[in-house]
Specification:
The protein is α/β, with parallel strands linked by helices and 256 residues long. Helix content is 50%, strand content 15%. It is built from seven helices and eight strands; from the N terminus they run H-E-E-E-H-E-H-E-E-H-E-H-E-H-H. It has helices at residues 5-51, 82-99, 126-141, 172-186, 199-202, 219-226, 228-248, and strands at 61-66, 76-77, 80-81, 103-106, 145-152, 162-166, 193-195, 207-215. The strands form two sheets. It has a six-stranded mixed sheet, with helices on both faces. Strand 2 (76-77) and strand 3 form a beta hairpin. The longest helix has 47 residues, at 5-51. It is elongated. Residues 42-51 have low confidence and may be disordered. It binds zinc ion.
């Protein structure tokens, strides 16, 4: 039977349709396969991503320095001494960081002045001896991160945390992250401040920050700073910040 040109067109069209369906089917299967592979990849990857901030690289040493102590009370308002607040927050922070796998050293674990245990008795200034002793502890443990915990003072109305970092700027990234976390807690919008004169910050090659956890001079915040639950909130945001920093910028610390 002789086929007309119209029949030929119909045959060609049908073969295209069959081929098209086959092609569509193949590309559908390839897409399905790729989707499956991607899902498997994500399922194995997601736990790693979410686990990483809480599983820092081993052997990260962190020195926590509760500011003041003993005869040096720091700022005092309404019989609340800064040294008590600093130690309470610092001890909780040390426990929380150890739980995360960091190696933590506290420069003091009780209400004591480090100037008393300083071997440099020829130095008359108690404050100077205290700082030298803190510096000696810091250098002995060669930490990657040093956090000196203090409370701010001077204003009845100011509130919220303030992070200070070293003049050379090596602690800026961690300072920025911690400041954001503290801002969020107090609903503030502060920036971390560079400090050129603080002994402990600028005698260390490691990342060294001063974390002022709040204003002891503000009656409202003073009550918060004495509150166990609020101290834990402060600690939680600081641990979160350190984990995020370690996850995002592990290259910026010097490992020894
Ligand atoms: Zn202080």
């Amino acid at each position: 039977m002789k086929s007309s040109p119209l029949d030929k067109i119909e045959i060609i069209r049908e073969s295209f349709l069959v081929e098209g369906k086959a092609m569509a089917s193949i590309s559908f299967r390839i897409s399905l396969f790729l989707l499956l592979m991607y899902s498997i990849y994500m399922v194995t990857l997601i736990p790693k991503i979410s686990a990483s901030p809480s599983t820092p690289t081993p052997a990260i040493n962190i020195v926590i320095d509760p500011g003041h102590g003993g005869i040096d009370s720091g700022a005092t308002y309404a019989e609340v001494e800064e040294k008590q607040v600093n130690l309470a927050v610092a001890e909780k922070l040390a426990v929380a960081l150890e739980e995360q796998g960091y190696h933590v050293i506290l420069t003091r674990e009780r209400d004591e002045a480090l100037s008393d245990s300083s071997p440099r008795t020829e130095i008359r200034s108690r404050h100077q001896r205290d700082l030298i002793q803190r510096g000696a502890i810091v250098n002995h443990f060669t930490p990657q991160i040093i956090l000196s915990i203090h409370a701010n003072s001077g204003s009845l109305t100011k509130r919220g945390g303030q992070v200070l970092y070293q003049a050379k700027g090596q602690g800026y990234l961690l300072a920025h992250i911690l400041q954001q976390k503290l801002n969020h807690l107090a609903n503030k919008n502060e920036v971390p401040l560079k400090n050129k004169s603080l002994y402990l910050l600028n005698r260390s090659k490691s990342i060294a920050l001063i974390v002022e956890v709040g204003y002891i001079s503000n009656p409202f915040e003073r009550e918060l700073l004495l509150n166990h639950a609020y101290q834990l909130e402060l600690v939680n945001v600081m641990v979160e910040g350190i984990n995020e920093f370690m996850f995002c910028f592990p290259w910026s610390i010097t490992t020894r």
